[in-house]
Amino acid sequence: MRGQDAFKLVWSSVAHSLSKSLLTALGIAIGITAVTLLTAIGGGIEQYVLNQFSQFGTRIIAVHPGKNVTHGVGGLLSTVRPLSIADADSLRALSGVEQVVGVVQGTGTIEAAQRQRTSDILGVGAQMPEAWRFKLSLGQFLPDDESGRSRPYAVLGYTLRQELFGNQNPLGEFIRVGGLRFRVIGVIEQKGQMLGFDMDDIVYIPVDQALQMFNREGLMEIDVTFSETSSSAAVAQAITRQLTERHGDEDFTLTTQDEMLDTLSNVLSVLTAGVAALGAISLVVGAVGIATILTTTVRERTGEIGLLRALGSSQGQVLGLFLGEAVVIALLGGLMGIVLLGIILVGFSLVVPNLPFLISPMYLIIALLVAATIGLLAGVIPARSAARLNPVDALRAE
Amino acid sequence: MRALDLFNFNLQVIYRQPMRSAMLLVAIAIGVIAINLLTGLGEGGKRYVLGEFDFLGKNVLIILPGKKETTGGMPPVTGETPRDLTLQDAAALKRLPMVSDVAPLIAGKAQVSRDASNREAFTVGTNRAFFRVRQLHIASGKALPSLPLDQAEAVCILGPTLRRELFGTQPALGEWVRAGDRRFRVIGILQPEGQGLGFDMNEVMIIPVASAQALFNQQGLFRIFVELRSLDNLAGSRAMLTNLLRERHGGEEDVTLITQDSLISAFAGILDVMTLAVAGIAAISMLVAGILIMNVTLITVSQRTEEIGLLKALGAPESTVRLIFLAEAGMMASCGAVFGLVISNILLFVARTVYPAIAFTTPAWAQIGSLLLALLTALLFALLPAQKAARLAPLEALQNKRAA
After folding, report:
1. Window 230-269 of A, Cβ < 8 Å to B
2. Spatial separation of the C-alpha atoms in residues A332 and A374, rounded to whole Å
3. pLDDT by residue (tens digit) across A58-110?
4. Cβ(A125)–Cβ(A187) below 8 Å
5. Phi-psi group of A72: left, alpha or beta (phi > 0 → left; psi -120 to 50 → alpha; rest → beta)
6. Using CB atoms, which residue from A74, A217, A278 is nearest to B282?
7. Is the pTM of this model over 0.90?
8. To 10 degrees, what angle do helices A257-300 and B18-53 make?
9. Do B372 and B286 form a contact (C-beta atoms < 8 A)?
10. Is B74 close to A196, i.e. CB distance below 8 A?
11. Residues 194 to 233 of A: which have CB under 8 A from any B CB?
């Protein structure tokens, strides 16, 4: 049998009962749509979260006090071995290190002439804007004063500026933060939310003033950025050596940004795969559908099969014909699924434009391959039963 | 047609096509199993997680230093404020009439050592009331003594893991351990328990709150747990606590009050949504099964055209013919669903046997819901083909074998 003839036979069989074939294909289509849509959403969320984290740059190493931060609260708790501002300063001299920022976070009242607001207070080093890639919309950031003698200057986040000063110029005005007087010298551009944390409702003050205000000995975190030419492993090692020397013991924990992003990306990929696997349950049901319908087809066409066999077709050829039919139906389903996906995505982007979807041509090719494989697997049992029919009995069945 | 006749009639049809019927059954069962299994896993997970978090009594309020104007976001977890929450605040709270007990808390990390073995441990400074409020149980020895809040004493209670790390198999009670630059005598060991709210109580060292203030060189408290005498008028009690602290803090409201219930309900909400989402994704497979039912019923109708013609010629009304096909789909769906329910319950039973700690059970609404969903899907998707069969003209149907 020539390939062309075989294809014609398969196609005529599919087209003969078109509504039946299309309904079967629709089952596969729904499964393919579910899987690709869920993967696209998962991929989109993964990219969104990674972007959120890497907006601070990827060449950052965070140092927290305490040896294990398995619970993620290490920096918040008290410790007998605090990380001091002097520790932070000592890291500046290390080779490869670009910026060092000590961080203390708390809450308190911020009062301007007319209004007041309780919000986050962030004590940071002068190099914060470069290290975290923050830009100022007005004025300048905190000056690099000698530790312990920094001048009482403050920089406002976008929301806080709006709340306290409205559209007036806040530069040069005095505010009270936690009861102490600060002069506003800058405003940070709008940063938006990050994972539920409003990054605009913050006042930035010098880190030594914050330690004093909160009556605290140690920093909650030291962020170290390093140059492009050095590796995170080398810098992490240098930091560890330096701090161990100063403390006499390794009583701190390093987290490198690239490691964290890797872990995060892994976790999110696994989640996406899991959700997509749930969607694949529909594909299994769709496969059962193909098998069921093909079984009926084999029954209906027993006579035809008998004729083919009587005319000299081999078992393999009959097997191939029915497998071909299963694959064609499944591929049809795959194509329908992709069209359905396209319609849904367009619909979504019209209603909610900013949903993070990530879709690549790769997905679509994989979706089609998966559909074809499913068709092949689902077709095996009915096709084998067709191929094994006894030609004489089959002919008589007509 | 009597119900029993209908049943027997359809049973014959189902038997006549064993392979096809079995596959339809499998398709529906897969959908039902997926829904039940996933809600079961979700529910079990939720109960386990909530159980882990549920270690405070219902009448316990948690006071955090710090407050934020914007509510709904993160509470001020770092708890750093210009004005500390002090032991005097705790003592004043205790004097309120509706407060039955108060447990102040300082949490920190300290290098705890004994001879050569040492370990970085969570160190909690608190008082005797904490053990009851936090529902901690002593395995051996005793809890912290009842001391005035501002009195330090060099005693400690160790979590079981920490005890094992420091002492191995040797007796620990009465021995001294060193934390930072201070020494503490071990007077009690905690019973093992799970983790909760980020603190692993198996690795904790508990010391009097005044000792912790000295150890960490810190006056301010990290949290205060307030136990109320009753839950009546919770809002009023909250207001009184807040007022008292505002007065003590120079008219400024710089604390946040939370209840464990509010934390748990927020958390339970998230977990419920996740379970529903997962079950919803599983339910897509039911849609696919529905399409399969429609397809098969269409085929059946076309195969049984003559039969339908005969029925109608004998005087069966449209409704009877429709009923026959709907009943067939319904029977298949119910069998498949029950089959699926049985299998998913067996699988969950196995899961419970393997992980006894987690109560994997599908809630009744999901079981009944998936059954009804299967039935509804079957009837809905069979309706179109059944309608088609019912509308066939008797004569044509009798003559034309391939009408459909």
Report:
1. 249, 251
2. 12
3. 888 989 887 764 444 445 566 667 889 999 999 998 888 999 999 998 888 89
4. no
5. left
6. A278
7. no
8. 160
9. no
10. yes
11. 196-198, 201, 213-217, 220
- Does A216 contact B254 at a Cβ distance shorter than 8 Å? no
The string of DSSP letters for B45-111 reads HHHHHHHHH--S-TTEEEEEE---SS-SS---TT---SS---HHHHHHHHTSTTEEEEEEEEEEEEE
Phi-psi region of A235 (alpha: psi -120 to 50; beta: other; left: phi over 0): alpha
Of B53, B89, B130, B95, the residue nearest B257 (C-alpha): B89
Number of neighbours of residue A316 by Cβ within 10 angstroms: 9
Kindly calculate the radius of gyration of chain A based on its CA atoms and give it in whole angstroms.
33
**SS3 (DSSP) at B207:** strand
- In the DSSP assignment, the letter for residue B222 is S
Query: What is the residue type of B114?
Result: R
Query: Which candidate in B28, B284, B293 is best for mutational testing of the A interface (most A CBs within 10 A)?
Result: B284
Using DSSP, state whether B92 is helix, strand or coil. helix
A301-343 pLDDT per residue, tens:
888 888 888 888 888 888 988 899 899 999 999 999 999 998 9
Inter-chain touch B288–A289, beta carbons under 8 Å:
yes
Q: Are strands B155-158 and A136-139 parallel, antiparallel or unpaired?
A: unpaired
Task: Give the pair of three-digit tokens for residue A186.
Answer: 């800058």
Q: What distance in Å separates the CA atoms of residue B221 and residue B107, rounded to the nearest whole number?
A: 8
The two structure tokens encoding residue B205: 């060292």
